[in-house]
Design brief:
The protein has 150 residues and is mainly alpha-helical. Helices cover 53% and strands 4% of the residues.
C-alpha cells in the first residue's frame, strides 16, 4: 500500500503522509487519478491503473519485464520485504525484528545465530574485490556489520 501511495504522490495526487494504509485519502487520490486518466474510477488499483501509475511517475523498471523469472521473483519478494521498488529492494537492511539478529537484504538472512557469519567473513576476506563490486560504496557498512556480529 505504501508503494501505491508513493506512486500517487509522485504523480501529484496523494498529499498526505505515506503510511501504508488504504484509507479515505488514498482512495480519493486513486479515484482522482483514475478519472483523470480515463479509467473507471472504482478505487481499485488493478493492472491498468498500475501501468499508468508506473508510466506517470517515470520510474518504471522495463529491465525487470525481460529479466529471468528468478530475478523477477526476488524483486517481488524484496519489494514486499523492504517497501522499495527494484533495484533498491535488493539492498534493504532490516532490524532485529525476530530476535535473531540483524537481517540483510530481500532474503532476510539472520546474522544473529553465528551460523552465517563465518561463511560471509570468509567470502569477504577471500574475495574483497567481489564484495566491493557487489556492494559498491556500502562495502564499509558490510564490514562494520560483520564486525558487530562477531
Amino acid at each position: 500500500m505504501a508503494e501505491l501511495q508513493r506512486r500517487l504522490e509522485l504523480a501529484g495526487y496523494y498529499r498526505a503522509p505515506v503510511d501504508g494504509r488504504f484509507g479515505e485519502v488514498t482512495e480519493r487520490a486513486l479515484r482522482e487519478f483514475q478519472r483523470d486518466h480515463d479509467l473507471v474510477p472504482d478505487g481499485i488499483a488493478g493492472p491498468a491503473t498500475w501501468a499508468l501509475l508506473v508510466g506517470a511517475t517515470g520510474d518504471g523498471n522495463p529491465w525487470l519485464a525481460s529479466a529471468p523469472i528468478a530475478r523477477r521473483c526476488l524483486a517481488l519478494t524484496g519489494s514486499f520485504e523492504t517497501g522499495c521498488m527494484p533495484p533498491g529492494c535488493f539492498a534493504g537492511l532490516a532490524g532485529d525484528f525476530d530476535g535473531q539478529g540483524l537481517s540483510l537484504g530481500a532474503c532476510q538472512w539472520s546474522l544473529g545465530q553465528g551460523t552465517l557469519q563465518p561463511l560471509l567473513q570468509d567470502l569477504t576476506a577471500e574475495h574483497p574485490e567481489l564484495i566491493a563490486r557487489v556492494l559498491g560504496d556500502r562495502s564499509g557498512e558490510w564490514q562494520a556489520m560483520l564486525r558487530a556480529s562477531r
